[in-house]
Design goal:
The complex is a heterodimer. By secondary structure, chain A is mainly alpha-helical. In chain A, helix 13 packs antiparallel against helix 14. Helix content of chain A is 67%, strand content 5%. By secondary structure, chain B is an all-alpha fold. In chain B, 72% of the residues lie in helices and 1% in strands. In chain B, a hairpin with a 4-residue loop joins strand 1 and strand 2. In chain B, helix 8 packs antiparallel against helix 9 and helix 10 runs antiparallel to helix 13. The chains are: A mainly alpha, B mainly alpha. Chains A and B meet through helix 1, helix 8, helix 9, helix 10 and helix 12 of A and helix 2, helix 4, helix 5, helix 6 and helix 7 of B.
Chain lengths: 410, 312
């Protein structure tokens, strides 16, 4: 009978195959390391641009105000200098803003420098060269800007957080932008979170499975994939233009001529977040076991009682985590607001939902586009502020998730 | 004692009836309205985009054929050929995918086949952070780090300050987590018995991955790539910052060129005058973007749902 002897050797090329296996496993590991490296380089790049040496020149020489160097003046002399050389109007606004008598000497000296000498940054350097090439930077500054004072400048400081926008980079801050971001995300959240959760409850608990449910479901999945700039177009056409009397506040007697207001932006972002919140809530609701619902129905509870007293509390951590993640996405969203927002220079804090606005990501976008190098430093500092905001939101979401999942486990 | 105080009702006292609960019905209607809002927003999207895009095509010097085949996009002088914007979009998308697919897929393979539970717990949050960074930050990174790097590597004369390559590469890093997590789900869905069978036939781990797991998860991986393409086409901030403004018809990735989303962002960045050709052009391009991403998402989801059924 034809019994065929196997002709191959069972260990043929085993060595090469194993070498190949090891080689590939290094490639797999390497690619994830590249991703991590990219993240680190990004963060370092941002920090690198937020701090570093800067050459500061004074527009007015100290000697035109006082023969003594400013460092040697005492409080009374400094106050006198201010009241004599500032315009009456400016002097009064400063006195209204800060109670000047209670300030320390150093703070008044800072005020004198800021108000009278008008420092401008003529050149700025990143952190890494500032740390390693100090002498070269000093030489370069001395060569090009012999008048300038060299200072280690931190672009992200407390002043940056509380100052509003300015045409001069070193006087710019993000207060208006942070307030704008918070207002918009507040409006978006108030609209999108209840509606999103409601829609998810309807889809998971109420809607009879059939064609209608299928259509809504696939529609939501597709909405989640629509590019965010399309929502900006929608917001521009509907909230800014068609609903202008409503969104500009003219219907309520406010005198604003554009619909480019916080309410328009908030609703646009809200529409964008809606599918995200619906999908996250649906997933949270699906994790609640069916037996819980059946037990509740078994003791005679109605559908809403079952939902309100049993299903929702069990799904709450998941829903909250999803909502927080959606909010952090909404804060970082930029492109829809380019269309909905006003491009003009905004340095007035938003006071109500009919105010004009700027947001943190928008500010980063405009600053990055500017040709002056120093605006790149302010953009980097603003990115740090934004990332810290988003990371702390995400941390809250993770803590929430862990806390509740530990609690629910007996 | 309580029995004495409160005697049980006699059988004839108990009336079983359905208590009318108006709140139940009210809540049902309310939730139904919430569910319908998503449909409403889709309808308004289609109406808004369609209506104003129609206005654009009704302009005297715009025809659909010119729009789809013209190679000059200069609305100020009445040239409305969308091809340069489309090629720029495709070039940036191509580079994004050529970064995101190999890196994302390899990372997914590492996470699903090699990494221990501990390493996964360490690595996954990092990818989540990468996915959570706003795109404007990626745009800043492209303009202030990758572009200068490319200019040093390839020469200042060859690489323009704004170029498609830098935008595409950074976009690839941005969509890497998307490709990675979707591919990982697909790999995870491959049943363990297939892996065991491959091992029992004497294959090494890599042979098992390439010949068994990857083919089995192929549809899921394809779906992840389709959705990644859709993301890359719709991405705005990176190209608006790094790819350049002003459309130009070029295939050289080292040159500046404006993408579809880049044009929308630039034109609408100012306080744009309504009902001008530029304003209506935004809607025409928006309509094109919307349909493209809609179709891609639809295909992606079809492929995903098909692969889900395989081993169940």
């Amino acid at each position: 009978m034809g019994y065929i002897q196997p002709t191959y050797q069972s260990n043929s090329g085993i060595k090469q195959r194993q070498i190949l296996a090891r080689y590939w496993s290094k490639i797999f590991l390497g690619s994830i390391l590249i991703a991590i490296l990219a993240l680190m380089v990004m963060l370092i790049n941002v920090i690198n641009d937020s701090y570093g040496y800067a050459a500061i020149e004074y527009e007015y020489d100290p000697s035109i105000y006082t023969p003594k160097p400013i460092e040697d003046l005492n409080k009374v002399e400094l106050m006198k200098l201010l009241s004599e050389n500032l315009s009456t109007y400016r002097w009064r606004t400063i006195q209204q803003d800060v109670s000047i008598d209670q300030l320390e000497v150093d703070e008044i000296r800072e005020l004198v420098v800021e108000e009278l000498l008008k420092p401008t940054v003529v050149a700025s350097y990143s952190l890494i060269p500032s740390l390693f090439n100090r002498t070269e930077i000093h030489q370069e500054i001395n060569f090009y800007h012999p008048e300038a004072r060299i200072d280690f400048y931190s672009w992200l400081d407390f002043q940056f957080l509380i100052k509003s926008m300015s045409v001069v980079p070193e006087n710019s801050g993000v207060r208006t932008a942070i307030l704008g971001s918070l207002w918009i995300i507040l409006v978006a959240g108030i609209f999108a979170i209840p509606v999103g959760i409601g829609a998810a409850i309807y889809l998971e608990e109420y809607a009879p499975s059939g064609k209608f449910k299928k259509i809504i479901q696939s529609n939501i999945d597709n909405l989640a994939g629509v590019p965010s700039i399309i929502y900006g177009i929608l917001g521009l056409a509907i909230f800014v233009r068609v609903l202008k009397p409503l969104t500009s506040g003219t219907i309520f007697g406010l005198e604003l001529s554009t619909g480019r207001t916080i309410i328009s932006a908030g609703m646009t972002i809200g529409l964008l977040l809606l599918p995200v919140i619906i999908i996250n809530t649906q997933e949270a609701l699906r994790t609640v076991p069916m037996s819980l619902r059946q037990a509740s129905y078994g003791v005679g509870a109605t559908r809403w009682q079952t939902l309100w007293y049993h299903v929702l509390p069990a799904a709450l951590p998941g829903i909250l985590t999803g909502a927080i993640l959606a909010i952090s996405r909404g804060i970082g969203e930029t492109s829809p607001l380019i269309l909905v927002g006003a491009s003009s220079f905004i340095n007035k804090d938003p006071t109500n939902i009919f105010s004009n606005f700027t947001t943190l990501p928008l500010q980063i976008y405009y600053w990055t586009q500017r040709p002056q190098d120093q605006f790149r430093n302010t953009a980097a500092a603003a990115i740090l502020v934004l990332l810290i905001m988003l990371l702390s939101l995400n941390a809250v979401a993770i803590i929430l998730r862990n806390h509740y999942s530990r609690q629910s486990r007996p | 004692m309580s029995i004495v105080d409160h005697p049980l009702p006699r059988q004839s006292d108990i009336v079983i009836y359905r208590k009318p609960r108006w709140t139940e019905g009210f809540i049902h209607v309310l939730l139904f309205i919430c569910g319908s809002i998503s449909i409403l927003s889709t309808i308004s999207l289609v109406i808004v985009l369609g209506h104003d895009a129609l206005l654009f095509f009704l302009l005297p010097d715009v025809t659909l054929v010119d729009f789809l085949t013209g190679t000059t996009w200069l609305p100020s002088i009445g040239k409305y050929g969308v091809i340069p914007l489309v090629t720029a979009t495709l070039i940036t998308t191509f580079f994004a995918i050529s970064v995101a697919l190999p890196l994302g897929l390899s990372a997914a393979i590492f996470l699903s086949e090699y990494a221990s539970q501990r390493t996964r717990g360490l690595l996954k949050p990092i990818l989540e952070i990468l996915a959570g960074i706003p795109s404007v930050v990626y745009g800043f990174f492209a303009l202030t780090f990758i572009t200068p790097l490319l200019r040093t590597l390839l020469g200042n004369d060859n690489v323009q300050i704004y170029n498609m390559l830098s935008a595409g590469l950074v976009m690839g890093i941005m969509i890497l987590p998307l490709v990675c997590s979707m591919s990982e789900d697909a790999l995870f869905a491959v049943p363990h018995s297939l892996r065991d069978a491959a091992y029992s036939l004497g294959s090494t781990k890599v042979e098992m991955i390439f010949q068994i797991v990857l083919p089995a998860a192929l549809s899921g991986i394809i779906a992840s790539v389709i959705l990644a393409i859709s993301r890359a086409i719709g991405e705005t901030m990176i190209v608006a910052l790094a790819a350049g403004s002003g459309s130009s018809f070029t295939f050289n990735p080292l040159n500046a060129a404006e993408t579809m989303t880049g044009y929308i962002a630039r034109i609408s960045g100012g306080d744009i005058a309504y009902d001008t050709p530029e304003y209506n052009a935004i809607f025409a391009i928006g309509f094109l973007l919307f349909t493209t991403s809609f179709v891609l998402n639809l295909i992606g989801r079809r492929v995903t749902s098909r692969f889900r059924e395989v081993y169940e």
